[in-house]
Amino acid sequence: MIKEFSLLFALVALSSAAAAREPTAAVPIGSPGWWATSGDYPSDALKSKLEGTVAFRVKVDPDGKPNACEIIGSSGAPVLDEATCFLVMARAKFYPARDAKGQATEGVYSNAIRWILPPNVSKTLSPKSETLTFILDKDGSIKDCRFVVTGANAEETMKGKNLCNSHAAFNEPYRNADGKAVTKRVTMKSSLELEDVEE
């Protein structure tokens, strides 16, 4: 009888301990540092040389999936704020929050992403020009493609943005007035020029 009472008492004690455990918050699976990388830097932000820190809060469902994201501290640049929530929703995974009974439940997780321009991006604009030229063949394929950059950071630009490496193809070739496919050389140019202004 004493042994049965002791066993019953032990079971009740364990049950009470389990019922009284502390709730836990949602915890990221893996490093949040991989949710956004320099390769994810929005092109508009790169062009405008925008940087900033974005604080966010994400709601996590009982399966550990984010189901909503809100900005709780803006970078001041909407493009960076939007990119932050987009990437978090796409890549973040969590161990779900748990209630006092150990059951998975909805939770929240807060953090911040600091957007810093990659080292090869100059924070001041410099004169440069870019030229993309290629032959668009009769079957819509691209041949003899050349991408040339001159000016500041030309070598770095060529590495990260050589449009000839995309192996793109047009759906349709150029056609003459009779509708017959013809071969054309296409040349696209862009340039950035600086001019002194009297103050």
From TrEMBL:
Subcellular location: Membrane
Topology class, membrane: Single-pass membrane protein
Position of the signal peptide: 1-20
Residue ranges annotated for the TonB C-terminal domain, each copy included: 40-117
Principal localisation: membrane
Keywords, comma-separated and alphabetical: Membrane, Signal, Transmembrane, Transmembrane helix
Superkingdom classification of source: Bacteria
An example Gene Ontology CC term for this record: membrane
Any one GO biological process: transmembrane transport
Name under which the protein is recorded: TonB family protein
Lineage, uppermost ranks: Bacteria, Pseudomonadati, Pseudomonadota, Alphaproteobacteria, Sphingomonadales
